[in-house]
Amino acid sequence: MRAIADPMSDVAGAARADTALLLCAHGTKGVAGAVSTHAEALAARGIFHSVQGGALYGTPKIDCVLCGLDAPRAVLVPFMMAAGYTLETLRTRLAAHPWGERVHLADPVGVRAEIPEMVAEMGEAAAAGRGWAPGEVALLVVGHGTRKHSASGATARASAAEIADSGRFAEVGTAFLDEPPEIGEAVAAFRAPACVAVGFFTDAGNHGREDVPELLAETGVPHVYAGPLGPDPRMAELILKQGLAAA
Length: 247
Prior knowledge:
InterPro entries: CbiX-like, Sirohydro_Cobaltochel/CbiX
CATH topology of the largest domain: Rossmann fold
Structural class: alpha/beta
CATH architecture of the largest domain: 3-Layer(aba) Sandwich
Keywords: Lyase, Metal-binding
Strand content: 15-25%
Largest sheet: 4 strands, parallel
GO molecular function, one term: lyase activity
Protein name: Sirohydrochlorin ferrochelatase
Strand order of the largest sheet: 2-1-3-4
Radius of gyration: 18 Å
Helix content: 25-40%
Oligomer: single chain
């Protein structure tokens, strides 16, 4: 699996002074969360003309962020874990926006090759915190998924398969909140005595912060939840790489 490189190793001389970098998350009823934190971290590096975060739902809305741009061009990185239904919604929103033709849309951050390694490391750290050896417990990658788009759960499944091939955990599986298998079903299929779960979410919203722990608790199996992937500070580096690749 691919590790995340030194943050300064492959962006030297990569300044895009004429290009704004935009991050777009799904969002919630409140303000955009992790996407704002990552945008601030990337803005401080001074590589792009400006860096701003927005959301399809919640605030600030990506439509409003686009209207306020003052750079000649922009690159938009979907802060999403899959190229599924939400990405299609973003494409539709961009196509209808006056700024749409000047925005280069990058691939979602969740398709980066470094993601499986991040998931595995989060799982290993959570297991260590409970005194468990990773090779003796199961790893459950929990995504949102949706029946509206077949690709929505594909990235989580691909990451789980790559981690399984590495042999670092006794077993590796996936579960989803809005498509099968659900958490209870997936955990019941494990033979390992305990389970470590990682949330394949970009933010610590209701799904990543509340729903997953509650559903894990209902299984009655010894477990630990590592939390959602998105707030990890290393995500900023992956966002940057996606932005530079599309600029």
